[in-house]
Amino acid sequence: MASAFRFATELVAWVAAPWALSSHSWLLAALSVVVLVGLPTLFSTPGDKANVIIAVPGWVTILLVVLQLVAAVVSSWLAWPGWAATAVSLLAAATLVTEQRRWRWLVSANRLAD
After folding, report:
1. In this structure, what is the dihedral angle of CA atoms 104, 110, 111, 114, given to the nearest 10 degrees?
2. pLDDT (tens digit, 9 = 90+) per residue, 68-108?
3. Number of domains composing the chain
4. Residue 114 has pLDDT above 50, yes or no
5. How far apart are CA 57 and CA 62, in angstroms?
6. Does residue 113 lie within any of the structural domains?
7. Is the four-CA dihedral 26, 81, 68, 8 of positive or negative sign?
């Protein structure tokens, strides 16, 4: 359940951030996608993903998820109608709740990069 909520929030962030930034700069909009998709692809905690490109401690993985959540919520409020932004905010809240077990695991036993 946690991974479904997390993935849905990531998808929203990938769409809402460039949407919100596109009126300011197409370059910023494109850069937001590179950051929101690229960073979690490159950096991950060993044991959390099957393929680790650059190993990082668990707290870095948690920060990357928080970045996605913040991007989804803030961007949706800037770019979309209130009812849609409210739905995104509820999705992000559900993600925060369901991620707690994973986050405890990520910071337990000093899950550090090898």
Report:
1. 180
2. 999 999 999 999 999 999 999 999 999 999 999 999 999 88
3. 1
4. no
5. 9
6. no
7. negative
